[in-house]
Structure prediction request, 406 residues.
Amino acid sequence: MNIYLVGGAVRDKHLGYPYSERDWVVVGARPEEMEAQGFTPVGKDFPVFLHPKTREEYALARTERKTAPGYTGFQFHTAPDVSLEDDLARRDLTINAMAEDRNGNLVDPYGGAKDLASKTLRHVSPAFIEDPVRVLRVARFAARYHHLGFTIAEETLTLMRQMVDSGEVDHLVPERVWKEMEKALGERHPEVFVQSLRDCGALAKILPEVDALFGVPQPEQHHPEIDTGLHCLMVLQQAAVLSAAIPVRFAALVHDLGKGTTPEEEWPRHIGHEQRTLPLLDTLCERIAAPKEHKRLARLVAEYHTHCHRALELKPTTLLKVLKAADAFRKPQQFEGFLLCCEADARGRTGLEQRDYPQADYLRTALRECQSIDNREIAAQGFTGQAFGEALDRERLARLQALKRA
Ligand code: CTP
Prediction:
């Protein structure tokens, strides 16, 4: 049997990009031989084994045949006569279809090295269209390698469009969408993921509420970029600069969905968009199976980001209302995420990317002031139950009043 390093590790090695996982392909072996050598079988649908020591994945070389729509509709074929080239041919992108033998020699039948050099994300074969997850994967790789200059080949984008038009992407299940989206949001340029989905028409199917923001104007005075879709991409980029946290980046992308349903006669103003965002956000989160934590922060940012922008003008009672709505006393970390999103919102505007955002520090101080109240002192005054809560709020308001005067 012959063993080859394949997939992402070969790609990233040649790119000088860090990688942690290594995948291997075994050619010329039967499952029984793998087990005899101490490998543990783990594949449900096709033979994949874990190495007895490294626990890395070793898959028998295989070919695939499409039998039904969706990403699970495949029949796999493995046999000792399936060649390395056969196995590489079923893969998505040329840069993912390279292999390395045990001496480090590159096996590259589909031009992966050339596409790495020209920074091109290009499909291997027309069979690319058989797996709808690949639309998300290509958009994700575009996001990951954007800073290196990678772009999607025009002919691959054409196939992606075809998969949207044929309805193939409609077969993506929510969990799979979220899995890819979560990874994409973690990349250095997550906005390129969203833009790439838009370029092939998939955004209208996967995140229609975000797609609807393109072409919707905002007042030029506050939004020199004007277009709401563009603004949301810029906010996502700024959020990625400010935070590595996925909930923060997700919330940044979806904070303005309500602007997509503003009646046209009200454009470019969007009064009440904060409230209109909430039901759209709930629908979106359900469609892509976004986790509760992400949804919670996104709802918070959607509802209160304009309050945050006006933090320095807010009355103490309103400030306290925002702190409570954000559950800032019990979840200070979530509140910090909220502040970062609001800062990203303020900066995700053309020409304003470097602006200061004193509102965030003001609210941080407001929270600290309230946190520094000694509950024991209030209890010592004899307050219990509801009266205790009221006394605590009076003290909090006094502190916020003092902060405002300072
Ligand atoms: N692959 C594919 N089509 C898919 C999923 C995977 O062709 N829908 C192939 C690609 O050759 C890929 C390899 O399987 O390189 C391993 O897949 P995976 O581990 O999911 O991705 P990586 O390319 O290793 O990328 P990452 O760095 O994100 O793990």
